[in-house]
Amino acid sequence: MKRNHLLTAILLLPMLLFVGCGTKPAPIMNIHEGAQGGDSTGLEDCELQPESSSTKHAAECGALTALLDKQVKQQDILGMVMAVRLADGNVIWDTSGYVDPDGKERWTANTPSLIGSITKTFTAVIVMQLVEEGKLSLNDTVDIWFPEQPNGDKITVRMLLSHTSGLGDYQELLGIDPEKLTREWVPEELIAITNQAGPVGVPGSSTAHYSSTNYIMLGRIIEKVTGNSWSHEIESRIIQPLGLEDTIVPKKDLSNEVVVPGYMKTSDGYLNLLEHPWYPHISASTGWAAGGIISSASDLMTFASALFDGKLMSKETLELMSRPVGTGGRWTWGLGGGVMKINDHQAFAMGGDTVGYHAFFIGTLDGRFIVTALVNTNEGDVILPSMDALKSIIQQNKSK
To answer: Which end of the chain is more exposed for a tag (fewer CB within 10 A), N or C?
Structure first.
């Protein structure tokens, strides 16, 4: 496909926006030790359970397999992986389809993929930990760290977390210019681009304007408060303590990292986006604290489980994060994620969309039900399937 055709295709793509069983068992065990109501640990590969199995989670595995097969077929995508935490604390996972157009490689629970804006929740966790430590206040205004910031005396940390700061989104302002999207950026440059364009809302409004700039600024606040790099704080506070073996913060660009390729459909077939130097997120600095992390379905489940189980912060802090603050589009935003009700359960969720990749996690605040999912087809959707899976397991639990 010619370059001009590729760039035309990019015009149709969203940039980093929130719109989350394999053939081998996942080599990760004991990731949910002490889970709510659970006495069993590890990931359970649904494909290893025969259809006639009478094992404990055969019914749930069957429902998960059917859901994934249906979604891959209906969406006409390469494949999907999903992990589900059940009420007893056990986690099952399954896949459908493949990670490549040739059908040679299946997804696994440990396949590394871009998680886009789920990075924002990682950043929010660090911020809330600093709040718990008394090093930050949600009511602190950003002029403390950014004296020249327009409206800096009115924009608070809480507003940055909930997209109610009124700041525009540098992602939209960068457009589709490959030169801009692939160069190395300093965070302050991305903030400056946003400020030059002017605000898109009033600080503190109940109307949320989703903006990655909020989290670039939070990343820098983390650095200014701790004296360490944002990546160091992510690694030392989340990745290392939770043993996230598939989760990394890219240091420079994606071409140097082990990550499943993202694909986009074209008239000439599937396009491997990592093979093209104009790929919009080849530069790690473009996403950074707003969207730069690579992870897997298994690691996302470990992260989400630790979040809901009170291992990353107190349950009171999580409850604070899950209160509605601003509404923008079809989502109501809390601090670091979206909030909603699923089958009478209060839920907290976050998704990440990068060109060629989609990720999502959602869980109930009591930690009893959690879903994580990934796809590497640009045209894929993991949000609705994940919410369907969550509704299904809640209903199955009620009927037992």
So the answer is: C
